[in-house]
Amino acid sequence: MATAAATPSPCPCSPSQCIKFRTPHRPYSQFSRSSPHRSCRRCHVICCAGSSPRFVAGDLKFVLHDALDLSGVDTTLAREARKEFRSQIGNLSVIERETSISINRGVDLGKTALYIAAEDDSLVSHSSVPLPVEAFIQRLDDLSMGYCSHYNSRFKSSPQTFLDSLDKYLYSRKRFHRSSPRSLLDFRSLYLHSVLTHRSGSAAMLSLIYSESLKMLRLAGLLNFDVEIFFPHDLEGLPRGYDKQKSTDSDQSHIMTSQALLVQILTDLKGAFWPFQHNHNESLFLRAAQAANCSDRSNASEERYGFQLASTKAAQYRLDRGVWTTVRLGDMRRALAACERLILLEFDLKELRDYSILLYHCGLYEQSLEYLKLYMETKISSLKGIPSDPSSIMEDDAEEKLMVRLNLILMEDGWGSPTHARNFLSNNSEPW
């Protein structure tokens, strides 16, 4: 199987000269549903001003689709959806990444979210028919236009009256609501097509629907004042619009940017389908590291350790027998897909590490080591002088133990270069 990218080469310029080059976004006047953005080709200079060199996500070779192909799963539709996702995020300029979703211009967030759903749907359903992205885009547009027919008398009213009527339309008339975090079927609230169908969604999904409604109303010439969207950080609040001229400093932390929204959508999916669901007080990486015996358990109670061990054995048992997903116990395919897309967004270096430990649990040790090395080398060059907190110290220790474990495994004859195609579903126990 193809491997990950080589280690990043040193940046040829000084930190003060480094900048992230991207194709400029199109003017807002050229944006419409009927004229989708063309894919832009980004220059392979990914150095942020004042920071150390970073990896180039577009050059990395991911594992999920190839591994599924080797196990006999047709990934044609998944690859097509991923290609469209990459095309959409290619339109994110540096400025656009930090632009509020209420005035986003560079990327069609609705389509991007639906391509995420389309890939995951093909991975799980194995259907020969793709998720009808355009049909759900039309449903999203119809939702916005439905407001016009019911509340056309409010267009000339005050901004607050206009926004109150939009809230009433979405949350009372159309009955969109926050999903319960304890619901067994809560994963449906993480996909845009399901939210449009069942009207129950996460804060990120409801914010996306709200922003797309505002966008369509603005394109129709019905919105003539600056609107911002208040993103709720609690478990029950609903996204609501407010007049930007009346905003306060406290509202700044509730503004969702285009990049932050996509990261939130994918982070929600990653957390929901992470195969190790014990101890939610710790990071996803530490949970997986504990499952791999790469983390210190000196402070763990006997009961907690027993639950972790049972959870780990259950996850491995399911993978060895071809069971990829179980209610409340994660889904390795969709967790890997979320990690790969988060890496493509070039937002957080730790996504490389989290991806690595999932590959370790899949028995893909060589690829796991390469992504872990890429993470460690880039981390060393970019985090010098930054103090560590207790949780990061635990993660640093687990990272080192995982590195040692992988190097030992690959030193064993036959594990570094397998003579047969390995896949996620085979029994890849360690050589000892």
Brief synopsis:
The protein is an all-alpha fold. It has 15 helices and four strands.
Structure description:
This protein is mainly α and 432 residues long. The chain is built from 15 helices and 4 strands. The strands form 2 sheets. It has a two-stranded parallel ribbon with strand order 1-2. It is globular and about 75 Å long. The chain starts with 63 loop residues before the first helix and ends in a 21-residue tail after the last helix. The relative contact order is 0.11.
- Structural shape: globular
Task: Kindly state the number of beta strands.
Answer: 4
Category from helices, strands and their pairing: mainly alpha
Note the total helix count.
15
Mean pLDDT: 78
